[in-house]
Amino acid sequence: MTAPDLAGRTVVITGANSGLGRASAHALAARAATIILATRSEAHTRPVLDEIRRAHPWAEVEFLQLDLASLASVRDAAERVLASGRRLDVLMNNAGVAGTPGLTQDGFEITIGTNYVGHFYLTSLLLPRLLEAPQGRIVNIASVAHERVRAVDWRWLDHRTTGAKSGFDMYAASKLMNILHARELARRLAATRVTTYAVHPGGVASNIWRSLPWIVRRVLMLFLISNEEGARTQVWCATAPELASSSGRYYYECRERRGTELSRDAALATELYDRTERAIADALGR
Predict the structure, then answer these.
(1) 7/9 Cα distance (integer angstroms)
(2) Residue 1 is assigned to a structural domain of this protein
(3) Number of domains the chain is built from
(4) Distance between CA 138 and CA 105 in Å, rounded?
(5) What are the pLDDT digits (tens) for 174-232?
(6) What is the CATH number of the domain that holds 213?
(7) Alpha-carbon span 111 to 136, nearest angstrom
(8) Among residues 218, 114, 94, 117, which one has the least CA distance to residue 166?
(9) 3-state DSSP assignment of residue 5
(10) Does residue 113 contact residue 160 with C-beta atoms inside 8 Å?
(11) Is 2 a domain residue?
């Protein structure tokens, strides 16, 4: 049996019913952490809850309904976590989409809205509980795809009324935003016990590629690593004692990486944070 070194700690993982999130949930449950699987569908998540309980009979796992493409759903999910009164040690912003056209319920481009805006809002709402933890951690799943972005286009945060084609460029943009979000959070939380991390898991055969044509997806899978391999770095960032004093950095294969110059731009990270707050407030009608 894996050492129960995470007993008493609670982890929220978005998109934990498949792919990297599911693998992360297994890895953390094996170490006796309490896992909250935050996903859209209870029906699709129930088999994963049962699977984790069978594999790790000591595990405490539960479902939390969350649709990152709806700010109202994000708010409701956060309120349920806060109302529970339980401690929250780790928020793993793992869920994501790629190549899916359309808009979120609040009018954001679907990839930006799901991968970045929804997680930004969830993180903001759950911060009070993370600040109460002995050492809270926020892990944003990013990607080496951020290297494709040469400049930030603030229209990415616009509210739209018609669907937009969401290709790989929007996915890359959302992952740059995930890295900048972690960096700016680290600056704002520097005087607290909460630390942040951005992670490139590697090229993983996860469900994020589900919107690609089947023949493209089939060929792509031949070159990708398993979800268990891909989850190693995000689990490490969520738990490693040696990272307790590190914050706002970018990791791949359990090592710190530089990322692009754009991803290290502190002024850009601050501006993105401020603009995102305004975009969410506008969407909520405040």
Answers:
(1) 6
(2) no
(3) 1
(4) 25
(5) 999 999 999 999 999 999 999 999 999 985 555 554 555 555 455 455 446 678 898 99
(6) 3.40.50.720
(7) 27
(8) 114
(9) coil
(10) no
(11) no
